[in-house]
Amino acid sequence: MVSEKKKRAINRLQSMYPLRSLVDGMYERAVEASKEEKPTAWCMVNWWGGDSILRAMDIAAVYPEDYGAVCAAFGTAPAYLERCDADGFPTHMCGYARNCIGYAAKMKDLGEIPPEAPMAGMPKPTLLLASGYFCDTRYKWFQALGRYFDAPVWLLEMPHPGVKESLMEGAYDHNIRFIVEELMEFVAFVERLAGKKMNWDRLDEIVSDTIEMNRIWHEVNELRKARPCPMPSRDFWSSMPASLYVAADPKVTADLYRKMYDEMKEKVDSHVGALPIGEKYRLGFAELPPWHDLRIFDQLAERGWNFVVESWAYHPPKPVDLSGVSNPLERIARHTYQYFAGYFEDAFKAKEPMGYFAYPYLEYARDYQCDGMLLHPLLTCRTATNHLMLVQDRLMKKLNVPSLVLEGDIVDLNLFNHDDALRKAEAFEETMDYCQGLRKEKGLNW
Amino acid sequence: MAESKGLTRAKEIYHNRARRAEELKGEGKKVIGYVCLYPVLEMLTALDLVPYRILGDMREPITKADACLPAVVCPFIRSYLDLGLKGKYDFLDGVVMAHACEVVEKVAHIWRIYQEPPYAHFIDTPHTKHEAAQKQHKELLKEFQKTLESFMGKELSPGRLKEAIEAHNQQRALVRELYDLRKPDPPLISGTETLQVMVALMSIPVEEGNELLRQVISEVKEGKNGLQKKPRLLVWGSIIDDIALIELIESAGANVVMDDTCVGSRAYFPDVKLTDDPLDGLAYRYLVELKCPRTFREAAFGETTKDYMADLESRFSYLKDYAKEWDAKGIILQSVRYCDIHGYEVPGLRDYLGHIGLPNTYLEHDYTDAALAPLRTRAQAFIEMIG
User: Fold this and answer.
1) B106 CB near a chain A CB, below 8 Å?
2) Is A168 near chain B, with CB under 8 Å?
3) What ranges do the domains of chain B cover?
4) Helix, strand, or coil here: A404?
């Protein structure tokens, strides 16, 4: 009994498990659809733009970015990475992409889903839905898959608001118009691909449900500001894919997030945190974790480290009222735009126009009362890495919140040194203690 | 002392890029730095601003950029940011940057935060040739125009913009003429000298650049450079702004007769069409006609089927044309490490080059002078293979 208690460094939320199952189930659903010769898509995360349209057209989608994390966790990634490298792709490329390219190469060799593929695997796609947002990889990777199968690539364009220029007069309007026109083109393309017309009423409902799902998910995350925080990053990472990957009917997902809200609320009201030993340090985490080594978070939890917030990029947008917007494509556009630009006005007011990609960390550190930030530069991912030094600098200068930098990778386990990370973490506690004093001197309230 | 001309002048500018810009500032001109190919230079010229391309320095160790940009991003970008942080671009009156790639995009904002230039503008260049993207691009250029006008305190007239377009098109025509002089065997100008001229052009006002080009072309046509017949190569890939790599290849026994890089043909070959609204021509040229792999292109875009070889043909056939016109016997693909844009292209491009029977090799480097040395053996082996 005693040893069993010792093993549990984190009290996991029970409401998290069905959310993770939804995502896991999407692979089986896509494989089944493929067997029935229905169209299937491989999608980049596209912030509900393309997802809602595919769902309304009954096209089953899987997400190779998620599958990269799955393969890392199941230990099948190394063979796929090796195959990608052998095919001549540079080794510094995105771990998710290398995993996927290696997987696609093996699938082409075998003429079927590789037998070792976890969670039923990803079926051969009819469509590759790329994204122009955030990173170059998320369209170059799909373009490169042409070596392995002849699925057309559609790139969903997305502007990069949340910087000074996007506040110029007229900028919001033409950005929204641009997104809507792009979505209209995409609808026309999917209609040709699926050989049927869009059911606009169904799309309208899916879009509303998706926005509502994200609103509830946002409320869930707001509860994490409580001390002690009942939901650590491990639970967040298990729960976020249901929103980001739109793996199921958004009504179903929204219900599960509601249940999560209820569980969290009860814990917050009764002051029950995620760590049985108590919350000694509250931390934020940026960007993506080493999926192959999540046990490190249990070990840090044993030291009283509670990760209470993560990168804004994996969080839902701040809610925005779109009830007056009748066109579902425009609702998608405005909702997605809010995701990218929702923090920037605050940044501007705070005279910290660091851009959409860095400012939210300041806001999070303040609102979630972080003692420190764990930054995880990914050796194969520019997107998740190129702003981290700026974040480190500004967190310290503005809020005296120190950062621990641990280099690693999302997929390639050879790039992360577990023991070294733990040693550095232990030393970092002194820094967090010292900085807490500095914050108090500054009149900050944590 | 007589003022130097032609290739000598180009070489001088190459070795001391900032000097002319600083002289122009002394004369009351404003100098605007820009990164990559996507900022629209004609709009700067039309407002009497001097466009000055921000480049890195592969011979200068990166010591300051580490504080605000991690080591695992493009070393060229880290280098120019490092130079900026060291004050080596302090003579600039402002900067304009565009979404050339995701790191250039982030560094545009990081530059603004740490350097606080008097003028800064970011163009969020779209990623496709879609009609909606072209419309969006035009809107973005209108915004660029507004901030420039505000900075300069005067309006940009369509007439002045057309004149600027003509001046830049003139420069492009002269560059193409210069590149034609690399077609004979042996070429009349080396790859190393050509690169010096290209870097010089990006450091001085357009009209001065045009005069420089006329002098260079005239000199080169005299054919006194003494180049010998050697295996002829085309070089493709990410930025080359230092002669070290080209010198290395040429000294290993080849003539670099053509390039597809952004301090070379990629920057100069497409013209701007003169349209009723000049912004239409500019928006089209800078989004659709520039052939950097950062823009997504597919043969079958919008079609529900795809053919891999047709796709490769549509993306890379211009390289087949270059190889034919410049009689290149092989192609060196090169990229700085951590350049995803070019890195993802390599296997597909090699598939294509294999398909058309053009020998090729791929070299990756860290954008440091010292790191190039080990590439010599590989370059030599490749040259021997095609020689």
Assistant:
1) yes
2) yes
3) 21-156, 225-386
4) strand
Interface pTM, i.e. ipTM: 0.95
Best B64, B66, B72, B113 member to test A by mutation, with max A CBs in 10 Å, is: B72
Residue of A nearest to B349 (CA): A144
Residue keyed to tokens 């070294």? A420
The tens place of each residue's pLDDT in chain A, 446 residues long, gives 444 555 689 999 999 999 999 988 999 999 999 999 999 999 999 999 999 999 999 999 999 999 999 999 999 999 999 999 999 999 999 999 999 999 999 999 999 999 999 999 999 999 999 998 889 999 999 999 999 999 999 999 999 988 889 989 999 999 999 999 999 999 999 999 999 999 999 999 999 999 999 999 999 999 999 999 999 999 999 999 999 998 899 999 999 999 999 999 999 999 999 999 999 999 999 998 998 899 999 999 999 999 999 999 999 999 999 999 999 999 999 999 999 888 888 888 777 767 778 889 999 999 999 999 999 999 889 989 999 999 999 999 999 999 999 999 888 888 889 999 999 999 999 999 999 999 999 999 99
The two structure tokens encoding residue B267 = 């920057």
CB contact set of A130 (below 8 Å; sequence gap of 6+): A44, A138, A139, A141, A142, A143, A153, A154, A155, A156, B296
Closest CB to B306 among A137, A151, A357:
A151
Q: For residue B351, which residues of chain A lie inside 8 Å, CB to CB?
A: 147
- A193 chain-B contacts, CB cut-off 8 A: 304
Which residues 21-80 in chain A show a CB within 8 A of chain B? none
CATH topology of domain B225-386: Rossmann fold (3.40.50)
Q: What are the residues whose beta carbons fall under 8 Å from the beta carbon of A51, sequence distance 6 or more? A: A43, A61, A210, A245, A246
Domain residues of chain A, as ranges? 9-442
CATH no. of B21-156: 3.40.50.11890
What is the spatial distance between Cα B304 and Cα A134, in angstroms, rounded to a whole number?
Answer: 26
